[in-house]
UniProtKB/TrEMBL annotation:
Annotated SUPFAM superfamilies: PLC-like phosphodiesterases
GO biological process, one term: lipid metabolic process
Gene3D superfamilies per UniProt: Phosphatidylinositol (PI) phosphodiesterase (3.20.20.190)
Protein name: GP-PDE domain-containing protein
């Protein structure tokens, strides 16, 4: 099972920053999950929320600002004084640091229209077998699946049905990503029957982590990669 640090080691460090990514790797993660949005001047930035309020304490969204403007904001102080001054991260800088590391990268698209730009950028740094592009946005994964040289793709889902899996499989999406709290054995078996791998998201507590560990799946994203690392290695 691949241990994906969710936005880095986001329980301990400010999410989607180099501090969180580096800490996640130090804690034993063998994968990193992150999110991509585009600024008003076309720069690809790692950021999750549609609003900047929670982590940057300012109004608006990523697309309301240029990269030069965003680069001046503090992306770390919300997590504690020790992270004061931690900046936002450009996708290219993240890939430059981790693209050749052998880590598995899960790149989530958060906006419609940036799909091919993200893919082109990722492929400059990462081998196809080492990354998956994912999204909740069906339009985005359908578009990428239609490309002649499509990458590995994952669909982030809040619901489940065998018909959904049939559809995803039919268009070339090979990874189904259910919310951990909704998972059951039937869901995992249905995916396996279609030769689709499963990666759980929303693993926010050790109890949910234990639930997901009971399934034979590809991986999970966790805010606390140290706990998952310990659990996986204690089991060996």
């Amino acid at each position: 099972m691949i241990n994906f640090a969710h936005r880095g080691a986001s329980q301990y460090a400010p999410e989607n920053t180099m501090a969180a990514f580096n800490l996640g790797v130090k804690m034993g993660a063998d994968g990193i999950e992150t999110d991509v949005q585009e600024t008003s001047d076309g720069k690809l930035v790692l950021f999750h929320d549609s609003s900047l309020k929670r982590t940057l304490s300012i109004d608006g969204s990523i697309r309301d600002y240029t990269w030069r403007e965003l680069s001046k904001f503090d992306a770390g102080i919300y997590k504690g004084e020790e992270y004061r001054g931690e900046p936002l991260v450009l996708l290219e800088d993240f890939l430059s640091a981790f693209g050749h590391s052998g880590l598995h990268l899960a790149i989530e698209i958060k906006q419609v229209g940036i799909e091919e730009k993200v893919l082109k950028t990722v492929r400059q740094y990462v081998r196809d077998e080492d990354f998956t592009i994912t999204s909740f946005i069906r339009e985005s994964v359908i578009h990428l699946a239609s490309l002649p040289n499509r990458p590995q793709l994952g669909f982030l889902a809040r619901g489940f049905s065998p018909l959904l899996l049939d559809y995803l499989k039919s268009i070339g999406i090979n990874e189904y990503c259910p919310e951990a709290i909704t998972m059951n054995e039937n869901m995992v078996e249905e995916a396996a029957r279609r030769n689709m791998r499963v990666r759980a998201w929303g693993v926010k507590t050790p109890e949910l982590m234990e639930k997901v560990l009971s399934f034979d799946i590809y991986g999970m994203t966790v805010n606390f990669p140290d706990l998952l690392y310990k659990r996986l290695h204690d089991a060996v």
